[in-house]
Structures are given as C-alpha cells and as structure tokens.
What we know:
mainly beta, five-stranded antiparallel β-sheet, single chain
Amino acid sequence: MPAPVDPHSYFHGDLVDIAKVQRGAGWDLVPSWRPTDKIATRPGFVDVPMLTGETPGAECKFLFEGTGVGLFVAAGPDAGVVEWSVDGGPFRSRDLFTKHSARLHIQWAYMLESELPAGRHELRLRVGPGRNEASRGNAVRVAHMLVNGLE
C-alpha cells in the first residue's frame, strides 16, 4: 500500500475504548448510558458505555500513541465545554454544544489535536467552568476516544 499523500490524514485513525482513560474524581464510566431528560438520541450512542463528567474542574488522563487525538461525544441540551492539554502544554477549550443539541443527544466527533509528532503522548481532559448560553449544564460525555497515527 502506498504511503498517504498527507502524513496527517486519518489513514491510521481508530476508535479507542474509553475504559483506557484514567478517570479522576468527577468522572464516571457509565456501563450503559441513557439520558434521563427524555430528549431524543441516535443509535450507537445510547445503552453503550459512556465516560461522563459534569463537575467543572474534574480531570482525567489518556495515554496514547499517534499523531492526533479527539473525542466522539454525545452532545445534548446540557453539553458543556471540554478543556484539554497534550504533553503538559497549555489548556485549550472547545464548546461541545451544537446547533442540534437542544433537541437531540447527537453524536459529534471533535479532533482536539491533529498534527502531533509521532509517538507517545498524554492527553489531560477537564470539564470546563463555562458553558454555551443555550446549554443547561456542563456535561462532557465521551463514547470513544479518537486516535490517529496507529499502525
């Protein structure tokens, strides 16, 4: 197989089990997540394991090998802000609330970093203190870790 034209393409992308995340206080691994708010869901993101954090400041850690890392989340009406740091760098943030979140716990993929040097890395995730003005909470719900660069 020839090498990809773009070395940072998602040619070697993969979904990684959330059980590999080292959970800190304020993070739970819910074995069969289902929303309690009666808002619609999509297949594949309900009655499945979900890494959940809702307390601002709660942190967890994920060790991975590759060139990129991201999250596959369920972003509903209480979706919050996730903050992240790779390899001890400064924290950055992303609002997880989407234009569909008010009516649906929608699955959404977010690449947090996509052009890291190949190798081992440490991702620190934190529930952010802020939230979208349309959101009702600070929830960060992760169904899968996304990792690029695995061979």
